[in-house]
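Researcher: Please predict.
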Amino acid sequence: MLTHEDNEILTRVGRGTPAGELFRRYWLPACLSSEVAEADGPPARVRLLGEELVAFRDSDGRVGVVEERCPHRGASLFYGRNEECGLRCVYHGWKFDTSGQCVDQRNERRSFADRIQVAAYPTHESGGIVWTYLGPPGTMTPFRDFGTESLPASEWVANKEYVDCNWAQSLDGDVDTAHISTLHMFDAADQLPDDGTDRPGYNSNLASVRFWLHDPKPLIDVEDEWYGFRYAGIRRTPNGHRHARISAYVFPFTTMIGFVPFTTSQIFVAPCDDGSAWRYMFETKPRRQHSPLGGPPFTTAPGYPFEMNPLQGIVPRDFTRANDYGIDRAAQKGVSYTGIHHFRTQDYMATETAGKIYDRTREHLGSTDLAVSRFHQLVISAAKGLAEGRQPPALGGTGDFTGIRGAEKILEEDEDWRVLGTDADPVVAGLLDPERRAALAGADD
């Protein structure tokens, strides 16, 4: 459990709070590119780290992220006219460009627009997301490229979904490999046949479901990395082998959850404020290009009863606490462990019903919560460290973010799970593009 003070540091993200100041040192997702797809199109509301902002794409295609309130009389710029390279407040006609500079004052006889600015933040588009930097200009570091910079729009997918609780509660589930054996389990899983892949090597994704059901008490092994940590949930398979499901946590909000043979799919939990967040989910490379190993995803298992999220855009929340997440008590007794029909809704039930901000002075962590505990420790330590003048970890320019991956495999007798999903993994190396292979070869010389 955490002390009250440490739980406050972990969960509070407003300007002036330890974590809020820490998170402002990183590029954060403001909105999907599709929300401001059209030049001179409708603006989009953005709430990020407790700040009310507006995103818009100007006539030249540039995206601005600016304070929502017009500095004249406080009217919302969300209702503004997006025209001729600026967003014009409809109250009196003051107009602002993407840098926040006032460029016109429609109601003034003697314009003083050159002296007026609205707060504005730098932006960067990559992987279908508009990223922004809310921190001090002098501490801005390069954009952290997870592989999206070189990809055309045809080769990425991005979506986001609203979470009605604190950001850390949502991310807790992403660094908790044990819960998949219970929360996401379904009755037909115990009828899945042995497909012959329960042996050292790459099992099928369908076989993974059998392993999760067979061993709900994984051994958690956490390895610190320069960007955060990787950890393995190691389970015994029905045939007695060691199955490793490896996920990565990238400071401060990103996770890459294990998949056969490896994955660069990412989840980025961006805090709107202390009590809500957006979960951005995106692929930096289509899985079809990775490898045929693993076969169909586990969601194609016979008898799999859950609906999955669409791949693109804002995902609607049809099931919330207001309608008890659509729980079906009959299904709970004969279809799935929860009786909740939507996969992601199961996670939201678990995290949102703990309250807007969970009081972690009341929690009791166990052996399968080691990665959760490590995540909390890293954020709290970095927040305190920044307040004392220490540099935050994993800033842009500190390392190669394109080489971070999740992975999954049945281990050979003496195989080290730490190699899986890295550039040193033979399966990864065989699928790297020639330019990256050449760069790695040069680094080894």
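Model: The first strand starts at residue 27 and ends at 32.
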